[in-house]
């Protein structure tokens, strides 16, 4: 089947563009159908005997039809695309429509044209209503359309000043004009709604991509942050032990290998989006890492409260344990780290992580790094909160609270970056020789 080139390309575009093209070209066709209405009136009027007046009439009404086509095109651009309102075109179409009605009525009154051409004034006035509804707000369009309507009625009054005939013409003109204006405006409004729905879908897609990027960055930070810190610590420790000829160096390197393989597995899970954390495994890992760094670790409520937590709550608190222990290793010279679990009377699970040797005494606790910001996002998804406190003497406390009666409420807006650990201090610089000595003392015992 033969089709114009543009129509062939349109068949392979989106549904939105096809609806746009269909609606636009339909309105263009309706505007050009004024020519068919004009031809119908002229055919019913019979042979025109006006000579130059008849020729001028044909040129006048034909020019009006193409002028309405231009007004429809610019009206759609203004209504849908937000282009400036073509005020000159509005003035020209209004004046030309009024002039057409008055000229036809005057020519009939002067016997230059047959009275059978008077319905042309109804046609031009009715087709004027459609583009005007696109170019102006409805109230303004209704007020401006009063001028062509008055001109049309005046044209009939010039020929037959009969109130009954004028009322009959008005009874036909007003409903048809309202129909034309409503058709144009409703069609354009439908296209605008379609554009907004499509824009909302595009925004939803971009937000989904941004959310996935945030999730990936947050999980990657949480996974690699602790593991790389532990790998760095254990490799330095293994190097010191190897220099001293201690057999424990091989054990430390084997542990590094295990952590590296575990990191590979966790990164694959992050990429797939299925990353979950086991709270009991995180507690066991935290104790092992802290004790390897010669930091005394005490667990309170781990055997009574932690096992009873819902899976999502336990996973979120597991991330808190992981990030908190990572920050202890990176940003403090701690000798102790106390991790405690509890249940508040109002139905909240609480986790506190407190350590000494903090280097953020002079820093504001609400200064955040990406780690604490990621924790706040995780807890906010469950309706929980995260707070940090810095006390005199280098004591730092991280507290997480999650409600137990609802696992996934609507997440409140995630606030700005808050917290104090990641951006507050440099990496912990603890002598590795001291750590190696502590391991050797433990081996000798």
UniProtKB/TrEMBL annotation:
Q: Does the keyword Transmembrane apply?
A: yes
Start and end residues of each stretch annotated as Disordered: 404-445
Q: Name one Pfam family in it.
A: HATPase_c
Compositional bias segments (type: Basic and acidic residues): 424-433
The source's superkingdom equals Bacteria
Keywords linked to the UniProt accession: Kinase, Membrane, Transferase, Transmembrane, Transmembrane helix, Two-component regulatory system
Q: Which GO terms describe its molecular function?
A: phosphorelay sensor kinase activity; protein dimerization activity
* Residue ranges occupied by any Histidine kinase/HSP90-like ATPase domain in the UniProt entry: 316-405
Question: Where is the chain membrane-spanning?
Answer: 21-45, 51-69, 89-110, 141-159, 165-184
Of the GO CC terms on this record, one is:
membrane
Query: Mind telling me which Gene3D superfamilies this protein's record contains?
Result: 1.20.5.1930, Histidine kinase-like ATPase, C-terminal domain (3.30.565.10)
Domain Signal transduction histidine kinase subgroup 3 dimerisation and phosphoacceptor residues, every copy: 212-279
UniProt-recorded name of the protein:
Sensor histidine kinase
Q: Which organism is it from?
A: Streptomyces triticirhizae
